[in-house]
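Journal club side-thread
Mid-discussion, someone asked how the predicted structure for our own chain would compare to the paper's figures. Pasting it here so we can look after the session.
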Amino acid sequence: MSFVTRRKAIATGPRAEGGAQLKATLSWPHLVALGVGAIIGTGIYTLTGVAAGLAGPAVILSFAVAGAVCAVAALSYSEMASLMPHAGSAYSYTYATLGELVAWVIGWSLILEYTLVCSAVSVGWAGYAAGLMEQAHWAVPKALLAGPDAGGLVNLPAVFIALVVTGMLLVGTRESATVNFILVCVKLVALAGFVALTLPSFDATHFHPFAPYGLGAHEIDGKKYGVMGAAAIIFFAFYGFDAISTAAEEAKNPSRDLTIGIIGSMVLCTIIYMVVAACALGASPYSVFSRSAEPLAFVLRELHRPLAASLIAGAAVLAMPTVIMVFMFGQSRVFFAMARDGLLPRGLSAVSPRGVPRAVTILTGVIAAVIAGAMPLSEIASLANAGTLAAFIATTAAVMVLRRVSPELPRPFRTPLIWIVGPAGIAGCLYLFTSLSAKTMIFFLAWNLVGVVVYLAYGRVKSVLAAA
């Protein structure tokens, strides 16, 4: 059998795969919380201002566009996750439909995506934490609060939070998911408070002109402006629901819980983004708050509510670790699945008595901490988008392939109008991919070329299917 096209058998039961197994401990509220924890965090607290500066008040449409593309992908993820409830997400789906080589590329891309997101959010959290330290007059050398790219020595707060989240995941899936659920509730209450405080100051004149930069994406001084240009950036803030499907093997009732978890978190987060953005725009002109690195807190300060602004900043410090947690969780599960399949050293798939792939979780956390503490992320963070878009395209293609070759498989959830929704989703992902910078696309290609070399040297030979 060719290593390019060899495929894993499609195992539809939650315990159908051999080897080490993860414990089924998660129900749908935990899965919805995992999705909300990944989606609402960095984006709602920082990208709202950035995107408003690119699209003006029409940023509300940008949120809708980015949310629509992700919603289409979410439908495909729901079908595949409920059909194949196993760790590995898009990697596992691709392995069973498009072949081992493509699956390796997707898995390798997911490792890049999840690690970079963990590192980038750790640095974002460190920025808020450093600000609070300065307000508290803590005598921490500035060289230890920023990485070399920002003129410092090492970003210790970023290293700290990455390792703390790693420790939480090592405690056990159920325990870490419960902590995540509590933190998600905290930030939702904070966002509800922001809406309540800004509504009385809503000024409709701030929405004119509505789309000062137009609808299409066009480049000005190296940045893409317009509704679609902002949508390409905002996309980063929307993905996260795919991390739920990496926990498929740990869902108590996959056919019900995964569907509710993925679709529910996607719809909820899209609504929250649009409402918060509308309130921010109504309370302050976009040209003013878009210049702030903490736009929501800035808007509240402009309304002379310093205490509320401090609470929002505090909620950001609480919110961002949930994003790190979800993506580190997802990365370790993809690593676990690839190791169980023999494409990576099989010892990495060993599970602790608590049901946690300990070695892979520690490795993920250490790498994320090193990157967050020492490496410049400003130019390579968009690589996370490239990896995610590749995974979205592969998952949607997997759904369509399986509809053709295995229509008889039991599907607890079926993507509606797949031959319209599927191509539309792939087209949307391709459009956003082409909106990335040339440097990002070149680096993404280089990463996967290295990955293919690793696969040919190790995975191709050590694969479980190689002995079949």
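Post-session note: Confidence is low (pLDDT under 50) at residues 14-18.
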